[in-house]
């Protein structure tokens, strides 16, 4: 009977066949230990010389790393294994012999591993990170589907910038100017006016020449948008959503978190509500922590966000930033028009901002003024203005960066390991 490593617990004491690759091996005289992987997980196969045909044992001793095979044997309990089971091997059918596999069990430099990303993905830790990424995506769909949101797919090619910045990838769209999307938000606002509560999940692109461990050129965003929802309600949705995905990863990725050596005690505490600190108070906190040159009106960098997060054991909302340093579409505070109804959610342990969100301007005349201030002229933005002209309502939304969230929950240092094929300032291969 054919099965997968993920399902071997259903076949204890039974003989099964698994299609697998050899991740590693070691031999001890009359026993060969094969570290097998099949995409669903990792498992040890034990080949005992006296229990198999001579050619099977010789193959087990000589098979090379990443060779593929059909391997048949009995599944037995093994309490020492993270999986809890191993295979007592009876037969091996070699499918393809891999020769001189470049990624050996020794240490390799980051650039070498990135050049071989197509193969590095096979390693146990990279496999674990990708499984955690998948669980976050699965839990995201569950959370929003269960709460009445409709999935909407905004375009990747756009005729304008979502945030009025210059960090865009320019391209030609036949005889028109076009850009790769840096956010689906504007389109999601239109969708919310049609469908109430919506969310998108897709790639976004920032032509930002940054080399930090938190930045990618191409990354994936989850962007909900909600009609008739004001700022405070949006914050509650955000903390409930983040709590849900964290607890889902803890419940469904125990083996992967263990593989990565993640301290799960720090994640078990991640449950709503989350603490909140105003931008004003954050400035004062930073000055107390030694950032004496930070002034009101300046945006926060990675060291500032880390210092603020250190004061809390959960993600923390920084609210009400100055309007001058935020996007044109954010609703001003009703009592302080110099700040806007927005929040950034900062992850613990130095992982930085994982969510940016705000209440959106719903007044037509105010949005016209913002257009003038930000020089958003031309037909490219007319449709967005019309959302305020025909049945405008209070509405809010946010965007969660998937890769930063994966990095935080996995405990990996750099976002380049949290996406299958990272696009970095100096990397477009493989």
Automatic annotation (TrEMBL):
The keyword Aminoacyl-tRNA synthetase applies. Keywords: Aminoacyl-tRNA synthetase, ATP-binding, Cytoplasm, Ligase, Nucleotide-binding, Protein biosynthesis. The gene is asnS. Belongs to the class-II aminoacyl-tRNA synthetase family. PROSITE patterns: AA_TRNA_LIGASE_II. Residues 130-430 form the Aminoacyl-transfer RNA synthetases class-II family profile domain. GO terms for molecular function: asparagine-tRNA ligase activity; ATP binding; catalytic activity, acting on a protein; nucleic acid binding; transferase activity. It comes from the Bacteria. Pfam families: tRNA-synt_2, tRNA_anti-codon. This is Asparagine--tRNA ligase. It comes from Oceanobacillus limi. Its EC number is 6.1.1.22. InterPro entries: Aa-tRNA-synt_II, aa-tRNA-synth_II, aa-tRNA-synth_II/BPL/LPL, Asn-tRNA-ligase, Asp/Asn-tRNA-synth_IIb, NA-bd_OB-fold, NA-bd_OB_tRNA. It is found in: Cytoplasm. It is an enzyme of class 6 (ligase). It catalyses: tRNA(Asn) + L-asparagine + ATP = L-asparaginyl-tRNA(Asn) + AMP + diphosphate + H(+). GO terms for cellular component: cytoplasm. GO terms for biological process: asparaginyl-tRNA aminoacylation. Homodimer.
